[in-house]
Write a structure and sequence with these properties.
Radius of gyration: 22 Å
Strand order of the largest sheet: 4-1-9-6-7-8
Shape: globular
Distance between the termini: 34 Å
Largest sheet: 6 strands, mixed
Number of domains: 2
Strand content: 25-35%
CATH topology of the largest domain: Rossmann fold
Length: about 375
């Protein structure tokens, strides 16, 4: 791992973004040397995208940051999961730099938005006392440190250099719950969901699991729960990316997938020293808005095979099976009807859409 030190360098914000679609996406923004050349070490990694900073007019730069600062790269300032996997991978450097470097400089993924509340909450645990600075115009930085990003295809990965960064999170303890189920049932219905998840919650509660709704807890409370637990079951979602930062090899882990099995989660958790996730996808059917938006699968409502799910949990030693509950067809249809009413959309089964690639439009501007 390396850190480039730039005297009188520049940081420019994102001003252009073409979303990934039929062609690779691309966006600008980044770090520059004093002569205006792009610092390659500052390029943001993201699967399906190229970070191509625009030429910078140094004579037109009016903003200036005095002192010493660490370049954090692009800040995913809206989506919790994307923030965790994309925007933390340079922060390892704070453990090795002098205390003169007491702030991290980002440029925003969404220019008109401030940082979501979870961002300072995470940074307060991992980098206590470090100031968050968001660059909104080309800015001259007196002393800029640009660390190597520790990531694979744009997803943060574990590395020995991160030990100091993660130590505060791994030291947190809570109420001592040994078995936890991390639910997504109380998220916005617009988001992807596991149909019948309430039955999963009741079944696991009967087996002694503490049911966790992470969006209702502080970042510190979430870390503490993961540290206390010996057995963790996740409903596939962003919370698993937070867990990855403190995952331990001696834990048992099962992920209930809401779409197909996502190896990004599996590899990321393992890279931080965590266990290999058990569980293959049991989803038999996905329900999506009939108008088939570009982000169709992120919003999909997945219907699991509850018999298959029970069998996998039994085989892995996560449950005894006593009191297992499964929804009826009526339960599923009632839940779908409720979601349609709340969202004012018509949901259709992907089993009736044999060529889903036809519903994804070409790349669009944002």
């Amino acid at each position: 791992m390396n850190v480039e030190f730039i005297a009188n360098g520049y940081v420019a914000p994102l001003t252009q973004l073409q979303l990934h679609g039929a062609v690779r996406g691309h966006f600008d923004g980044g770090a520059y040397y004093a002569d205006g050349e792009v610092c390659q070490a500052g390029l943001h990694q993201k699967d399906g995208y190229d970070n191509t900073p625009l030429p910078i007019d140094r004579s037109a730069v009016e903003a200036r940051l005095e002192g010493s600062h660490v370049f954090g790269g692009m800040l995913q300032n809206k989506h919790f999961g994307h923030f965790l996997v994309e925007s933390l991978s340079r922060l390892w450097a704070f453990s090795f730099l002098s205390r003169d470097y007491a702030s991290v400089v980002y440029y925003n993924r969404i220019a008109h938005m401030d940082a979501s509340s979870f961002i300072p909450a995470v940074l307060d645990v991992l980098c206590p006392g470090v100031r968050l600075i968001m660059v909104k115009q080309p800015t001259l930085v007196e002393h800029l440190a640009v660390p190597t990003t520790i990531a694979r295809a744009g997803v943060i990965q574990g590395h020995p250099s991160m030990a100091g960064l993660l130590a505060p999170a791994r030291a947190l303890r809570g109420e001592g719950h040994r078995k936890i189920y991390v639910s997504r049932s109380r998220l916005n219905p617009f988001d992807g969901m596991i149909l019948g998840e309430g039955f999963i919650e009741r079944s696991l509660a009967a087996e002694g699991y503490h049911i966790v709704y992470p969006e209702t807890l502080s970042i510190r409370e979430q870390f503490a729960l993961y540290n206390d637990a010996d057995t963790v079951i996740f409903a596939d979602g962003s919370a698993a990316h937070l867990y990855a930062l403190v995952a331990r090899a001696d834990q048992k882990l099962f992920i209930i997938w809401r779409r197909k099995l996502n190896y990004t989660y599996v590899r990321q958790i393992e890279s931080f020293g965590g266990p290999t996730a058990q569980g293959t996808s049991t989803i038999e059917e996905l329900f999506v808005p009939s108008h088939a938006p570009w982000g169709v699968f992120a919003q999909a409502k997945g219907r699991p095979n509850f018999d298959n799910l029970k069998a996998q949990l039994l085989q892995g030693g996560f449950i005894t099976g006593d009191g297992w509950q499964a929804p009826t067809e009526t339960d599923i249809q009632d839940q779908l009807a409720d979601v349609e009413k709340i969202l004012n959309v018509k949901l259709v089964s992907t089993n009736t859409l044999p060529d889903l690639k036809l519903v994804r439009p070409k790349a669009r501007q944002e």
